[in-house]
Design a protein that fits this description.
The complex is a heterodimer of chains A (625) and B (145). Chain A has 625 residues and is of the alpha+beta class. In chain A, 52% of the residues lie in helices and 19% in strands. Chain B is globular, with a radius of gyration of 14 Å. Classes of the chains: A alpha+beta (625), B alpha/beta (145). At the A-B interface, helix 8 of A face helix 1 and helix 5 of B.
């Protein structure tokens, strides 16, 4: 798997994800704003709820004051009436009944005698004893209007507060107390009519913390219940003014409470009204707004992400993909690859343009190089073909030459022998009869035939180096040299040559040919000796390429310009009269050395001597022929 | 040694000059002999089997055989002689210019009695012919007829 495959621009390419993240990041402040607004709205909703609750309790307190004031006026008026002053029970009863029908805000109206027993009442109380009631005692004591405790009416079973006023005689003496029980249910109606949030409550409690009135109270369990120990209520009971608080807990619901004393007796609050608005209901609009805002924001975000997705695809990813695809194609070697996108003025457009230019120039250069390579290759192939052809030709002509040399030399021997033999027969038979000229001519003919014969023999030997070769086998060079020296015994003795040689190694070779090699080189040294006594030095040492042999003499030497020429067949440096020879010997030596995977060369100084060097690798060269 | 009659020699040689040279070399010999000449293998076999014009021919005591012959080659002729029950005992001296190893090997493989190379020099040749005479005709005991 190649590393670049990981950069494949799939549907969730990093670029696309980053674009979308960028979009979301840009939308974050809006989210913050939404949350901030929601918090603000919540705070203002709380404030509003507090304000409306407070408004409500004030309304209740004010209404209660007006009701009490109205009741005082009524009681003052009633106390002046003769029916009341004279305690005309029947008349009073009728009057009170009539009043109760007119003023539904009163639960009852009645007169209590000095002894504390009810004398007359709108709703019959059957001489009930009310002498122990606070309002009665206070009126008796102060002779003034008094407000009683908030309580559940004994006869009416309604939440009431009793208001009382003294009935006096002409002389001012107290004859009784007239009272009116103010039905607090008007508060319920007040709340019901008010535009308060759902499940808002109104609670009236007395100074003992007992619930006098509760709205709503569907199963009636609230009336008479003490809430003194509920959270915040003790604090409330000791207070004397209005306020709001959301730490109160009258039931299980969290509410924002506003409270105010409903009534004060002698400047001290003895009853309170509380309006509780459920936090949930109060905050509902704020939460609704927040939810709506969040939904809107989500939609906007989705749209933004979508825009980033598709916009990124259209404006960026397509170009990037095209670039990546083109890059990969170029990397894979397809230099025709182009991004194929429109070049706009954006960075990506410029990049695509630059890339295409690069690919163009790359393609051009590669094409140029390929062309050059193709040309070179064609040239090489042509050259190789020509070399192979020439090699083949050369090999064939070499083979032909060797075959020809072998056959020809063989077949040439026969007629030559005839020439020689019959010339000699002629000379033998007719010695002294032919004359001096004829004998000289016979001598020339014989000499020519002899030279011809030697040429043939040498040519045969030369051709046999390739065609009649034996495989290379371990050969003791001491034996080889010994054989060569034995073959040259006569020449060595005649020349008086002194030959020095060390102990020689054993190496892979063709013994016959190596004998020929030494024989030719030593024979040459003898043939081309100088006037001074001939000394021949044979040396050897092992080198990296094989065994290095040298045959040195102190003969006439060879001019430097002829160092190469002497190894070419039939090349001679001297006249035949001076040094007889066919000019094949050294070319045979060269052929033998090359067949042994070595090389031969000469070093010489004219007049001083010659050294022939040759290296035998010990490895067979490719067979010649 | 056959003192009762002349020694019979068959020379198989295609080159008349070569044949004449051999004859000249034999001439210098003192030993009484008859030298017959066949120019190729076919003629040689006719002679040996006394066919045609050779009906009266005598069985040779020695055959001098050149290897390179027209019509029937010297090697074929050697094979035929050495596989023939009546002829195989006649000594065959291969007399040729070839010094090739395979020719020498092959000749002996075909039961040639000896292999002699013709030398260049006339003197050498005369000496070789003389030694052949001395050895094959005067020294060795030839098989009885």
């Amino acid at each position: 798997m190649r590393r670049s495959d990981k950069l494949l621009p799939g549907p969730l390419s990093r670029l696309r994800v980053r674009l979308m993240l960028l979009m979301l990041l840009a939308l974050l402040p809006i989210l913050g704003l939404v949350v901030y607004t929601a918090a603000e709205q919540r705070a203002s909703a709380m404030e509003e709820a507090r304000a409306s609750a407070l408004r409500m309790v004030r309304l209740a307190a004010t209404g209660q004051k007006q009701h009490i004031e109205a009741a005082r006026q009524l009681l003052i008026t009633l106390a002046q009436l003769s029916e009341v002053r004279q305690t005309n029970v029947a008349a009073c009863h009728a009057l009170f009944n009539n009043l109760l029908t007119l003023h539904r805000v009163y639960a009852n109206i009645g007169i209590i005698g000095n002894d504390g027993h009810v004398i007359a009442s709108g709703i019959p109380l059957r001489r009930a004893y009310l002498g122990d009631r606070g309002y009665f005692l206070r009126v008796k004591e102060t002779m003034r209007f008094a407000v009683g405790d908030y309580e559940i009416g004994r006869a009416s079973a309604k939440p009431t507060v009793n208001l009382a006023y003294p009935i006096r005689e002409q002389n001012g003496a107290l004859t009784g107390v007239i009272f009116a029980a103010l039905d607090l249910n008007w508060l319920n109606q007040l709340v019901a009519r008010a535009d308060l949030p759902d499940r808002s409550t109104l609670t009236a409690i007395d100074r003992a913390g007992t619930v006098v009135l509760r709205y709503p109270d569907p199963d009636g369990r609230w009336s008479g219940q003490s809430v003194r120990n509920r959270p915040g209520i003790r604090k409330l009971l000791s207070s004397n003014k209005e306020g709001t608080d959301n730490s109160f807990r009258l039931d299980d619901t969290r509410r924002i409470y506003a409270y105010t004393p409903l009534n004060r007796s002698e400047g001290i609050a003895d009853s309170w009204v509380l309006v509780g608005i459920p936090e949930e209901a109060a905050l509902a609009p704020a939460y609704r707004t927040l939810a709506a805002n969040l939904i809107y924001l989500s939609i906007v975000m989705a749209l933004a992400v979508g825009a980033a997705w598709f916009g990124g695809d259209i404006f960026i990813l397509r170009k990037v993909r095209a670039l990546v695809a083109a890059t990969r194609r170029v990397a894979a070697g397809d230099l025709h690859a182009r991004t194929e996108t429109a070049y706009d003025h954006g960075e990506l457009g410029q990049l695509a343009h630059a890339f295409d230019e690069m690919a163009e120039s790359l393609e051009q250069r590669v094409a140029e190089r390929e062309q050059a390579e193709a040309q070179l290759k064609a040239l090489n192939e042509d050259l190789e073909q020509r070399v192979a052809k020439r090699t083949n030709e050369l090999k064939r002509s070499n083979e032909d030459l060797e075959q020809f040399a072998y056959v020809a030399s063989h077949d040439l021997q026969e007629p030559l022998r005839m020439v020689t033999s019959y010339m000699q027969l002629l000379r033998q038979r007719y010695q002294g009869q032919l004359g001096k000229d004829a004998e000289e001519f016979i001598g020339f003919a014989l000499d020519g035939a002899e030279r011809m014969q030697r040429l043939i023999v040498d040519l045969l030997t030369y051709s046999r180096v390739g065609t009649k070769a034996k495989p290379l086998a371990p050969t003791d060079m001491n034996e080889v040299l010994g054989r060569a020296l034995r073959n040259l015994t006569v020449a060595i003795e005649e020349s008086g040559a002194k030959i020095n040689y060390p102990h020689l190694p054993v190496l892979a070779g063709d013994g016959t040919q190596l004998t020929q090699l030494f024989q030719n080189l030593i024979g040459n040294a003898i043939k081309f000796r100088a006037e001074r006594p001939l000394e021949i030095q044979i040396a050897t040492q092992q080198e990296r390429g094989g065994w290095h042999f040298s045959v040195s003499d102190n003969g006439i030497g060879i001019p430097k310009k002829d160092f190469e020429r002497i190894f070419i067949i039939f090349q001679r440096l001297h006249t035949r009269e001076k040094y007889p020879g066919t000019g094949i010997g050294l070319s045979i030596c060269k052929k033998i050395v090359e067949r042994h995977g070595g090389r031969i060369w000469v070093e010489s100084q004219e007049g001083k001597g010659t050294t022939f060097h040759f290296i035998l690798s010990g490895q067979p060269d490719t067979e010649i022929g | 040694m056959r003192e009762d009659r002349e020694v019979e020699i068959l020379l198989v040689e295609d080159n008349p000059a070569d044949a004449r040279l051999t004859m000249e070399a034999f001439k210098s010999s003192s030993m009484p002999h008859t030298l017959s000449h066949a120019q190729d293998g076919v003629e040689a076999m006719e002679y040996l089997r006394r066919q045609g014009k050779y009906a009266q021919a005598r069985r040779p005591d020695l055959i001098l055989l050149d290897l390179n012959l027209p019509r029937k080659d010297g090697r074929e002729l050697l094979t035929e002689i050495k596989t023939d029950q009546h002829l195989k005992r006649i000594p065959v001296v291969v007399l040729t210019t070839s010094q090739a190893q395979e020719d020498i090997l092959r000749a002996y493989s075909l039961y040639a009695n000896c292999y002699v190379c013709k030398p260049m020099e006339l003197d050498d040749f005369t000496r070789i012919i003389k030694s052949i005479q001395d050895f094959w005709l005067a020294t060795v005991k030839l098989p009885p007829e």
